[in-house]
Amino acid sequence: MSTFSELINSDQPVLVDFFAEWCGPCKTMAPVLKNVAAEMGDKVRIIKVDIDKNPAAAAKYNVRSVPTFIIFKKGAVRWQQSGALPQGMLIDVLKAFV
Could you tell me the mean pLDDT of each successive run of 10 residues in the chain, 98 residues long? Predict the structure, then answer.
């Protein structure tokens, strides 16, 4: 299994969903992320990070609320936004980095 830093250092855009099990909006984003993954295919990778199980990662990237989405490319943060987002917006943002 790859480490988090190996995953985000990819040439391929990586969308990281920082979430929590107790978060209602995070639960509503789960089917949206499945649809985004289906539409984008192997052009992007989507990773979910539970902030309660990985507080160091959440702190490192200044995640103050969930859900927070961060797009990494070659290890660099290219885009970040908190809150539930529409599927079309996520797809449009990801397409900009493919």
Answer: 87 96 97 97 96 95 97 97 97 96
Which pTM does this prediction carry? Answer: 0.95
Helices (H) and strands (E) in the chain, counts: 4, 4
Sheet holding 76-82, edge to edge: 45-50, 14-19, 68-73, 76-82
Per the CB < 8 A criterion, the answer to whether 4 and 75 are in contact is no
- Tell me the fold of 4-95: Glutaredoxin (3.40.30)
Mind telling me the catalytic residues?
23, 26
Task: Give dist(CA 12, CA 28) in Å, integer.
Answer: 26
Overall size of the chain counted in residues: 98
To the nearest 10°, report the CA torsion of 50, 53, 59, 64: 50
Residue 64: name the closest of 76, 47, 81 by CA.
Answer: 81
